UniProtKB/TrEMBL annotation:
Residues 28-332 form the Histone deacetylase domain. Keywords: Hydrolase, Metal-binding, Zinc. This is Histone deacetylase family protein. It holds the Pfam family Hist_deacetyl. The keyword Zinc applies. The lineage of its organism: Bacteria, Pseudomonadati, Pseudomonadota, Alphaproteobacteria, Sphingomonadales.
Amino acid sequence: MRTFHSPLQRRHAPEKELHNGAFVPFAEHPGRIDAILEALGPAEAPRDHGEEPILRIHPRAYVDFLKSAFGEWRAAGRPGDAGAYVWPVVGRRPLTLDRVDARLGQYSYDASTPIAEGTWEGSYWSVQSALSGLDAVLGGEAAAFALCRPPGHHAGADYMGGYCYLNAAAVAAEVAIAAGRRRVAILDIDYHHGNGTQDIFLDRGDVFFASIHADPKTDYPFYWGHADERGIGAGEGATLNLPLPRGTAFPAFETALERALTAIAGFDAELLVCSFGADTFVGDPISFFALETADYAPIARRIAGLGLPTLVVMEGGYAVEALGANVRSVLSGF
Ligand code: SP5
Ligand code: ZN
């Protein structure tokens, strides 16, 4: 399968994240890329599509914030990576604020998504990899793999979180619509709910969002991904959340997958974007499902059974020693 990735994505390399009360090494590190490329072989360099596709999803003010925040942080004399320490109550009121600390809080929702020197560049090229994979699929490939990193599915239109800054899957889905695909489905099978993607398309009837993930009652991102979130307005019914308990292994995952695929098949999509996270793996250090490496191939075969042109976008997966094999397994099924 054609695979797209830019070495510039490595420029995003924060040092630490806040986890359970302590600063610990950043889990979403460039070594993840090394592990995947070692298993797959070299990837194709993405074409530069510029900022225009990104701005279809993300407002200019947020994009400018991502570009300038690290420089402002350094100019304020701060060491290390930029991160918020105060957040507004969500949507409290629109304010234009000067200090980088205020802006970091306005454009984020957690403390595990620091901005490092290369965060904008890495995020930008991660989206370009997704757009180049989309080009391949729009050009007739049955499936393509965008080796995105940093991941994207926790990023909303104007917020970062969950190691995500720009939402590559959402940008790709929106560009597919702009290219004339009338309806697009997004299937998110990362361990964590894709709250950013859901938020972006919540009120849209032309993009179906289905997610299988750990129950947010016990797992990040807590405030999204509950089964009663089904879309609003024109998007009523075009969001499907299938939360599963910690410990879920292949049989229960497969049952949820069949439900998601039945819903997607009924939506009459012309293209599928699959947000794939390998953090459903039994050995993942920050997650608690129990999928085995060999399970990813039949999961992909069932998804491929939809018969839709499919862009696979990399999201999470932190068991680095198994990551290459897990990605190879899932790609073997498409
Ligand atoms: C894309 C994705 O999978 N994002 C996951 C974000 C989860 N963040 C909350 C859990 C943070 C755990 N950090 C553990 C670090 C250990 N070194
Ligand atoms: Zn995840």
